[in-house]
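[Solved] Which block belongs to which protein?

Original post:
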Amino acid sequence: MIGFLDTLAGHALARTPAADGCGITISREGRFLTVASAGRNARDLDEKQYGLDDGPCLQALRTGEEFTVADMLGEQRWDSCPAHAVACGTRSSLSPPIAAHTDTAGALNLYSPKPDGFAGTNLAGMRLIAAQATGTIALAQRIADDQEFANDLETAMRSRSIIDQAIGVIMGQQRCDAEEAFGILRGASQNRNIKLRDLCRDLVTSVGGRPPQDGGLRPRP
C-alpha cells in the first residue's frame, strides 16, 4: 500500500508545477500519520499540524471538505501553523480529503512556495488522485480487518478446545452430561470472578499435571 501511495503523492506533485511538496495524511486509532510524501517539507509541515492538532490538512480530514490556503502570510487560522509554513518557505496549500468520514479518513496535502500557488490547478485531477488513495486505504483496511477477524477466530477456537477439555473432566468427576458440566464451570467462573478460559486451563492443568494443548486453526509443528 505504502509504495502505491508514494507513487500517488509523486503523481500529484508532478501535476501541480507550482507545488514543491506533497504528503498523504491518514487518521488511525486517534493518531495522525504521514503515510507517503514527495518533494520537500511536506512531512515536516504535516507533522507541525499533528503537534498543534489543527491545520488545513486536519480540517480536510475531519470535515471531509477541501481546504485551500491562498497565502499563509495573511492566514489567521490554525494558531502557529501558517507562520511555521512561511518559515519553511511555504506560502499556499491545497488539501483535498481522502476516505472522508471513515475510520481511516485522511487528506492529500500539497504545498507551494508561491502565493495562490494552486489558482490554476486542475482540481478535478487532484480529487481523482484523492479518490485513488481512498480506494487503496479502504482495501488495506479491509485486509487488516480480515486478518484481525482470523486472529480472533483462532483465539476463540483455542479457548473452545480448553473449555471442551475442562467439560470432559467435570463430566467424569460429577457423572453428568456436557450441558450440566458447562453450567458448573460457568457458575464457578462467575463466583470466583475469573475468566472461564483461565478457570478451565487451571482445572485441566491440575488434573493432567501440565498446561493443556491449545487447539487452533493452524496445524502445530
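(Second protein starts here: sequence line, then its C-alpha cells.)
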Amino acid sequence: MPRRKHPRGRDRAARRPQRHKDVLHGHGGHRADDFRCVNCRLDVSLDAPGTAHRNHCPNCLASLHVDRRIPGDRDSDCRGRMEALCMFTRPDGEWMVVHQCLTCGELSANRIAGDDNPLVLVRLALKPLQDTAMASRTMLAL
C-alpha cells in the first residue's frame, strides 16, 4: 500500500519532529502544574484557595475522574469526565460539590475552592428548584 502524502506534499515519515515551544512557559505563561479543563477548555492552576488538591475547574466545576480513594492520590484508572450534580453542606458549614463520573458512574464529594465561580455555585445550589414538581412537593412538606 503506498504511503499517503502530507497535504503540503511532504511524506509524513519525512517530517522533522516538532520542536519544543517555550513561548508559554516563561514568566506569566503556562506552568507545569496547570491543566486544561475538559469542559470549558480554560487553563486552570492547581493552586486552589481553601483546599489542598484542585480537582475541578473553578469556572464550570467540571472535573476528571483521577482520584481513587484519597483526595489527591491521582490513582484512578477511569479518567472519565465528571459532571457537577448538586451541592450540600457538611455539619461544620463547609460546602461540597457532588460530581458523578459520566464513564463509570461513581460519585464523589469535593470541597469548593475559594476561587470557584459564585454564579455557577448558586446555579448548582438552585438546580433542584428547576423541577417544579419537586419545588411543589417541598413547599407542601413545609
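Accepted answer:
You had them paired correctly. Confirming on the second one: Strands lie at 35-36, 43-44, 63-64, 81-89, 95-101, 107-111.
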